[in-house]
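Continuing the series of single-chain predictions for the mutant panel. This is the parent chain; the variants come on the following pages.
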Amino acid sequence: MPHSTTNASKSTQDFVPVREVRDGIIVLKDGSLRAILLASSINFALKSEDEQTAFIVQFQNCLNALDFTIQIFVQSRMLDIRPYVATLEEAYKAQLNDLMRIQIREYIEFIKNFTEAASIMTKNFFVVIPYAGGATTVAEAASFFSFKKESSTEAANRSFEEQLSQLEQRISVVQQGLIRTGVRTVRLGTEETIELLYKMFNPGEEGKPMPLEA
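Parent structure:
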C-alpha cells in the first residue's frame, strides 16, 4: 500500500506561517509583512465621563482614518516575578548586615507566597499592522492569526525594502492616531518579536517577561 502523508509526519515549522523575522518585521511564508506595536494601557474606569467620551471619539477617529485593517491583540499571562526575585537574591548575597539579610529573606518569601496565592496576571497590548504588497482594504484577511496560503505574483516580486517602506507609512499613521487618544506605542524589535512568537506558539511554557515599556 502507498504510504500516506499525515500531519504527524510534518515538522512544527510546517504549521507556523512565519518565514523569518527581519529587522523586527515578521515575513510570512506568503511574502506579506507584519509589524507589531506594543501599546500602553489606559485605566478607562478611573477617567471622568468627559474624558471617557473624548477617548472614545478619538479612538473612533483613529480607526476611521485607516484604509487598511489592523489587529489588536491582548496577551494575558501570569506575572513572572523571577527577574525581581533574582535581583533580591543578589542584594541578599551582597548584604553584610545580619538584620538586613533576615529582612530581605523574609521579603523574598513574602513576595513568592503572595504572587502564588493571588494569581496576579499581567497584560500586554499589541497592535498588528499588515502589508501584503498592494492596497489592503477591509476585505483583506489581515488578521495575524489567519494567513493566506499562497502569495500573489505582485507580492512575490516586490522587494522587502519596497514593502517595508509602505509598511512604515502605515505604522506612522497608526502611531499618530493612537497618540491622540493618549496611547503610546513602541515597535517591537527582532528579539522582542521572536520572543512574542515563541510565547504564542508555546503557551504552556513560561518565558521571560516583555522587556519593553510603551
